Amino acid sequence: MEYRVTVMPGDGIGREIVEGAVKVIKKIEEKYNHKFNINYADIGGIAIDNHGTPLPEETIEMCKNSDGIILGAVGGPKWDSLKGEDRPERGLLNIRKELGLYTNLRPAIVYEPLKNASPLKPEIIGEGLDICIVRELTGGIYFGEKGVKEDGTAYDVLSYNEEEVKRIAVKGFETAMKRGKKLTSVDKSNVLESSRLWRRVVIEVSKDYPEVELNHMYVDNAAMQLLINPTQFDVILTMNMFGDILSDEASMITGSIGMLPSASIGEKYGLYEPIHGSAPDIAGQDIANPIATILSAAMMFKHSMGLPEEGTAIEKAVEKVLNDGIRTRDIHTDSTKLVGTEEMVSLIVKN
Ligand code: NAI
Ligand code: MG
């Protein structure tokens, strides 16, 4: 089969890590006899430099003409003095909205050979940790009415309608069906009206998924439970802002920001990116960990292209390299072998 892939390296370490994912995609092409037509597009700071806007029209067009999108990261000190709509990060928020990417999937996995990288005690991690956070991405307080009143009062409105909650709840239950069939819906329904709607709709949707065990948790408790008993979770379903915070917390439990992929999915399109930023402090030095971006490509094969075997092949290759004790600097310890970005990529490609 033939597929179109849009690749947006963005800024900082973006170019290096995305190049790693492209090499892996080309290996899959060769091994499984597919054809991937890869097109590059600008987003973020580089787009500001080249086109005067963080999200050029031609980038949107190219994304809309693709079967899968890979993104590196955006932003950096060079653009830090810019405001609001002119900032690199706006490119990212706007492409999510533009493509209707209302579901954000963020797995947080503690890989067996990296167990001691977690800041949590081994007995809390137990047999290992494998959580998937399903976060609503295009609604809620980040997209609500906002402003500053005459008296200086600043406000941001948090609202959800039934349809918005329903479609993300369906994604949550579908995700749970493919995993451990357990879903924790996180809200703040003891205080917020929008959360009461959230909980009511989630319960309604749950009737279509009788096999999935559903429980509800207030967000403050969920933040605590992630630290004291994280292995109780399989899928966590939550709204935009709570998901932003909890997914960062969950990713840090794994101890390695350079390892974790993410998927942002809508009805038609899928965008895949590492959870970390552009890491300007290490850009251009061949030390960035490319694994998060490579695993994002694996998610693309699974979720946007219907190629689960190809996705799993990538995950297996990453596990093999980790089991062989190969490490980039961020996950390196005394007893492992330190390699640079490019060598890590070559070893994953080889495996
Ligand atoms: P960051 O995630 O870029 O870096 C945090 C720390 O983790 C740094 O010490 C960095 O060197 C390290 N790190 C990140 N990715 C790594 C990798 N693959 N391998 C090894 N080490 C890695 O977050 P920071 O420093 O807060 O932000 C830097 C820039 O990135 C800012 O402009 C920020 O706005 C932007 N950003 C962009 C995101 C995106 O494009 N999705 C997400 C988060 C931040
Ligand atoms: Mg965040």
UniProtKB/TrEMBL annotation:
Annotated organism of origin: Psychrilyobacter piezotolerans
PROSITE patterns named among the record's database cross-references: IDH_IMDH (PS00470)
GO function terms (MF aspect): 3-isopropylmalate dehydrogenase activity
Cofactor(s) for this UniProt protein: Mg(2+); Mn(2+)
InterPro entries given in the database record: IsoCit/isopropylmalate_DH_CS, IsoPropMal-DH-like_dom, Isopropylmalate_DH
Primary subcellular site in the record, as a coarse category: cytoplasm
EC top class, as a word: oxidoreductase
Domain Isopropylmalate dehydrogenase-like: 4-348
Pathway: Amino-acid biosynthesis; L-leucine biosynthesis; L-leucine from 3-methyl-2-oxobutanoate: step 3/4
Binding-site positions, Mg(2+): 220, 244, 248
Residues reported in the UniProt entry to bind substrate: 96, 106, 135, 220
Site description Important for catalysis, residues in chain: 142, 188
Catalytic activity: (2R,3S)-3-isopropylmalate + NAD(+) = 4-methyl-2-oxopentanoate + CO2 + NADH
Transmembrane segments: none
EC number: 1.1.1.85
Cellular compartment(s): Cytoplasm
Binding-site residues for NAD(+), renumbered to this chain: 76-89, 277-289
Subunit-level organization: Homodimer.
Protein name stated in the entry: 3-isopropylmalate dehydrogenase
Family: Belongs to the isocitrate and isopropylmalate dehydrogenases family. LeuB type 1 subfamily.
UniProt function note: Catalyzes the oxidation of 3-carboxy-2-hydroxy-4-methylpentanoate (3-isopropylmalate) to 3-carboxy-4-methyl-2-oxopentanoate. The product decarboxylates to 4-methyl-2 oxopentanoate.
Cofactor note text: Binds 1 Mg(2+) or Mn(2+) ion per subunit.
Keyword vocabulary terms for this entry: Amino-acid biosynthesis, Branched-chain amino acid biosynthesis, Cytoplasm, Leucine biosynthesis, Magnesium, Manganese, Metal-binding, NAD, Oxidoreductase
Gene that encodes the chain: leuB
